[in-house]
Every structure is written in C-alpha cells, then in structure tokens.
Amino acid sequence: MNKFTQTLIAIVTLLASCNNSLEFKTLPSGVEYCYINQNPDSTTANPGDVWIINVKYYNSNDSLLFNSKEVAENFTMGCPEEEMQGCIEEGLTKIHKGDSMIIKVDAEKFYNISCATTPPDFIKKGEQLTFYVKCENIIAKEDFENQLLELENRMVAQEKMLIRSYLEREGIQAKHFDNGIYKIILKEGQGKETAANKFVNVNYVGTFLDGLEFDNSYKRGKPLKFQLGQNLVIQGWEFAIATMKKGEKSQFIIPFRLAYGAKGQKGIIPPYCTLLFEIELLDFK
C-alpha cells in the first residue's frame, strides 16, 4: 500500500468519524477547502508555477471519477496566469508544498472551465465534486520549462536514432527535409505541387513506426477535406501535403514536434510519438 493510498484511507476515516471537526472555508466563488495536513511555512504556487500532486476526485454519490496514480506517478497541473474563480485551480492556490487538502468545487465549472468540455450526463446541475489532494512539490515556472526542454532534447535524440533504425530495417530510401520529416513517394502525381491556403481532398492511413494503425480514412469511406494554412491539422501535415501533387500517394515520417508533441492525443497518440502517414492527395483547388 503506497503512502498516497494510506493518506486517503486516513482522510476517509477521519471524515466518517469526526466530520464535524473538519473546518471548511468557503471562498467568495463558492469553492470550499479544508486542510488535513498543513505546512503553512512552506511555499505556495505563483502564477505559471507547476503543482506536482496526487489527486482523486469523487462525485456526490462517492463514485471515484479520477485517480492521478492511474495517469502518472508525478501528475502535474499548472497554476494559471489569470485567476480561475470557482475552479479546482482556485482551491489549489491555497495549498502549500507537503499539504493534504480536501477541495469541493462546482462540477459544471470544473468540466466547463478546467477541462474545457461539457459535463458527463451523470453529473447533476449544482452538484459538487470532492477532491482529495496531496501536494508533493511546487516547481517554479522557469525551472519546469528548463526540465521540459532538457527532456525534449533527449527525446529528439532518441527519435533520430529510432527513425534511422526504421529506415535501415525496412530498406527505405527517403527524402529528408531540414525540419525532420522524411518523404517516400509511392505513386507520382501530376502537375504542380499544392500550396498554402489551397483546399485539399485527401485519403490517409496513420500508423506508428511499429505498424500499429490508429486512423484510416479509407475504412471510413470518407476522404478528409480542409484548407491548408489554417492550422486545422498538425504542422507535419501542413508541410507534407504542400510538397505533393494531384494524384500523388506518399508516406511521411513525422517527428513528434510536428505532430502531437509532448502531450500526445489522449487515448490515441502517446507523448513524444513519431508518426507514419500514408497520404493520397486526391485533388486540390
């Protein structure tokens, strides 16, 4: 049993046995918070800093909705540059490094503002979510940015080796662009290359370098139509399609910095993931 689980058990036991002794404070926005363990002499976050936390939150029926341990050992949240009233971020501004807290927020505000999405159907209007939070650390904005830069540089170096190994293993001769994209022409096109702001019509298959497929417009039976230069697709696609001619089919190896970066795409693309796209440019105008 890890320390966080032990802490949560202690909190739940405390709530059940001496609920009246917990002193919740209420902010003008309606956010409620209560300290379980407090380190008032420790630091709190400044705007732009990053909280390293363990967190679980429950709905009004005591159903567990989220456990950070299932996502990452060191789960991070950024302290917003601007005040977010009524949200979990406002409650977290009261937490010190080493503190354990209970924070209650309006569920609708949490989903609408903190998560930038609509609440699930099972969330009732006016319902509160209860967060159990342990703050492991607070990292200054500049220090966190430096850590991310160091990590990205390491991942870039690893990615270059991974791509070279893939090309050698598959015996592929590819054109290499300065931005790190590789292009393999499978079928020549006709005419001029397309250009920025053109409306394009493409079919595509997206896979990882191990061959695992994650997206396929052919299977949907519906090509993708969009305008280049409007940031509607990943940067790698913007560049890749601009090198293509009508009727051309090519494969592109796209480095993570021109794909979904350090965040990935939840449930689909892992962080720092190199992608392989086979793209067929059906038409453009």
Fold and architecture overview:
The structure is a single chain. With 285 residues, the protein is an alpha+beta fold. The protein is built from six helices and 16 strands. The strands form three sheets. Strands 1, 2, 3, 4, 5, 6 and 7 form a seven-stranded antiparallel β-sheet that branches. β1 and β2 (32-37) form a beta hairpin. The protein is elongated. Residues 14-19 have low confidence and may be disordered.
Total count of strands: 16
Mean pLDDT: 92
Taking the sheet with the most strands, its summary is:
7 strands, antiparallel
How far apart are the termini? 61 Å
Q: What is the SS-derived class?
A: alpha+beta
Shape: elongated
Order of helices and strands: HEEEEEHEHEHEEEEEHEHEEE
Q: Tell me what portion of residues adopts beta-strand conformation.
A: 25-35%
* Helix content bin: 10-25%
| Rg, nearest Å | 24 Å
User: Count of helices?
Assistant: 6
| pLDDT < 50 stretches | 14-19
List keywords for this structure.
single chain; 285 residues; alpha+beta; seven-stranded antiparallel β-sheet; 6 helices; 32% strand
How would you summarize what this structure contains?
The chain is an alpha+beta fold. The chain has 6 helices and 16 strands.
List the helices and strands and how they pair.
Elements (H helix, E strand, L loop, with lengths): L2 H16 L6 E2 L5 E6 L12 E9 L5 E4 L7 E4 L9 H5 L7 E7 H8 L13 E12 L1 H30 L4 E2 L5 E6 L2 E4 L5 E10 L4 E4 H4 L3 E4 L7 H8 L2 E2 L2 E6 L20 E10 L1
Antiparallel strand pairs: 1-2, 2-6, 3-4, 3-5, 3-7, 6-7, 8-9, 9-15, 10-14, 11-12, 11-13, 11-16, 15-16
